[in-house]
Design a protein that fits this description.
Length: 216
């Protein structure tokens, strides 16, 4: 089985990091192939970049025809409907999958580094029918700067998680962003509630949509 992981931003390093996590989740039953957006931003941090990313994802559709399933690996799921209209295989967004796993546990929050995308995250939660979405909590500062220092990034996200849990009494938290996939692993051990990693969640949902059981 072949799953294409589409990175809607232009960072190949981010694609490789997400590929490693996806492959670990899928195990030997699937080959995960990374595809990076041909144009757009290296980090999607505001609504216009998300709209450009949707067009970049759609432009990749000819390269995805050999896949058995496709994952859109940016929170906000840019280009999800466009690819579903063009491909005959399951197309899953990481926001869609992460929110679904969190909602199964009850009321949930999203924690991320991109405050300008909070309205788009809320719109996605509404689109997917999650009445238990409590809101988005974000780290302070400009997203690209925050993400340059992994230690500071982890500390800032830790604080945002604690704030979300304390203020909204949620049962789960989704880490909102494909580029945050690596640090999400470290955060899970400290989180006071289950922390949903969206890349593994999307792999599991892709397996389910193909009628298969994911090993992790």
């Amino acid at each position: 089985m072949r799953i294409a992981l589409v990175n809607p931003n232009t960072s190949r390093a981010t694609t490789e990091a997400m590929l490693g996590i996806a492959a670990e989740t899928a195990g030997p039953r699937a080959t995960i192939v990374g595809v990076t957006a041909p144009f757009g931003a290296p980090l999607i941090a505001e609504p216009q970049a998300l709209r450009v990313a949707a067009n970049a994802v759609a432009a990749l559709s000819p390269k995805l025809t050999g896949a058995d399933a496709v994952i859109i690996a940016a929170f906000g799921d840019p280009g999800l409907k466009l690819l579903r209209d063009r491909l005959d295989v399951p197309v899953t967004g990481i926001a869609e999958a992460g929110m679904a796993e969190a909602a199964a546990r009850g009321r949930f929050a999203v924690v991320t580094t991109t405050p300008k995308l909070a309205p788009e995250i809320a719109a996605a939660a509404a689109r997917y029918g999650h009445a238990g979405f409590a809101g988005t909590w974000t780290t302070p500062g400009e997203p690209a700067s925050v993400m340059k220092d992994p230690t500071a990034l982890q500390s800032a996200l830790d604080l945002a998680i604690l704030k979300a849990v304390g203020e909204a009494d949620v049962s789960a938290v989704v880490i909102g962003g494909g580029p945050l996939a690596t640090v999400a692993r470290e955060l899970a051990a400290k989180s006071p509630v289950p922390l949903i990693e969206p890349i593994p969640a999307a792999v599991r949902l892709s397996f389910a949509r193909l009628g298969l059981t994911c090993p992790a």
